[in-house]
Here is the input.
Amino acid sequence: MADEKQNGPAATITVGNVETTDQPCEEFCSDPCGIVIFGASGDLTRRKLIPSLYRLSKNGLVSKNFFVLGASRSKMNDESFRADMEKAVREDGGFDAKAWAEFSSRLFYAPVDGFTDRASYDRLKAALSEKNRVFSTTGNRIFYLATPPSAYGEIAGMLGEAGMSDESAGWARLVIEKPFGRDLQSALELNSALYKHFKEEQIYRIDHYLGKDTVQNILMLRFANTIFEPIWNRRYIDHVQITVAESIGIEKRAGYYEEAGVLRDMFQNHILQVLSLVAMEPPSVYESELVRDERVKVLRALRPLGMDNMRSSLVIGQYAAGEVDGRRVAGYRDEEGVPKDSVTPTFAAMKVFIDNWRWQDVPFYIRSGKRFPKKFSEILIQFKALPHRMFKETLYGEIGPNALILQIQPDERVQMKFHTKNPGSRVKLRDVIMDFAYKQGYTGLLLDAYERVILDCMIGDKMLFVREDGMRLCWSFLKDALELIDEQGPYSPELLFYRSGSTGPLESDFLIQLDGKLWRNHG
Ligand code: BG6
Here is the structure.
């Protein structure tokens, strides 16, 4: 009998050491370029951008013809900006005095009086051309907008008017982070504002989930092996689960989160992008536009949730007080900056279908929530049950289905669940897990998601970035759900409260149990 308790020790796949030894710059490193970071005194710059750029530089992945110019309204100069960024890099860990000296000699600061102040852009342009000359970047430049999204349109406009989007001398790229608008309409307006001066080829929309190695690995696993693809379809797959669970709450981001909620924060981007990788067709060549075409086709085939079906395909919740990691934590409404009557969802579970030949009628259950007992992101591919119970006279009970589990983070693994005979004279089955730890046997360099996407932007590889049509389709898919949630009307899905430290409202379990399935949980 298949019995979870009898699971034998996981068999381990041994992998050869595929090492990336030295990273020879000629092969891997960026084009010569300067990066201008707007919002240089902000949190994203300190926590992610500068530490990532520093590590890329330390590991020899950026060209020697490279510099960073921080721009913000804070009163700072090169020295004080460097001192502040040094602190950030030290806090991040892995500080190396020599590598920092090299990196910080390329780090500069340009104060701006306001994101719409024309004179500031003229000064910035002059500073940029001077640095371009000193560092021989051939004029290539990236504008990374680490600012509130409401400033994206204005900054892009001002850059354009000052002639900085012009590509006659070197390329110009604009990097923006989500949220790209707050609904379809505002996303389209943002696009129009960006398109006044930048072409789509120049715009890099970051979804840091696409930069995660284990997310990219979905394509390698599917298309660099012959054993998965023949069964990767409705004939063999019963259903797919995608979970992005976090144990943290909203931290200090009430202002942003109140406007966003979980659907805008996690579904519109990360989860739907992961889903598109799981479900897409193989492109003829692993090339950025072809891969993005295939991702977009999946998004186009998503079956609308439909106003009438909303309550049976969507469960939303908000965390109440509880305990996580042995610590009492406050409910969402008691977080600093959150109104006491907030109806912003911090959890959602959804049943989704993809209307095409490969996936017709295979449910994809997707969910994300804050204040789960444990952080984990994973994809479960559950195969169909046995067609015939050949062992029914010998074995009691059901034989569970096979499953392939792709653990995205934090414990990055690929696991295959199947049954074997228990050793011994009696005929008994046990579930075993063939387990591959992603980093096992690898001693080369690892890039985190931000390093990966920044490097790709410097190289000009857009595979891991979101294209305009992809972004638009994600908003279209969520349009009805967002409208119903925002209006809180009689047909809106009810906001359910769940205890912090639980795995969401019970109704989300019912969503999947009604179809005879169970969520796979951790902790
Ligand atoms: C961000 C969301 O995009 O992703 C956050 O805004 C969330 O709310 C974060 O916490 C999760 O990212 P990761 O890489 O920690 O899974």
In short: The radius of gyration is 25 Å. Residues 246, 265, 377 surround 6-O-phosphono-beta-D-glucopyranose (CB under 6 Å).
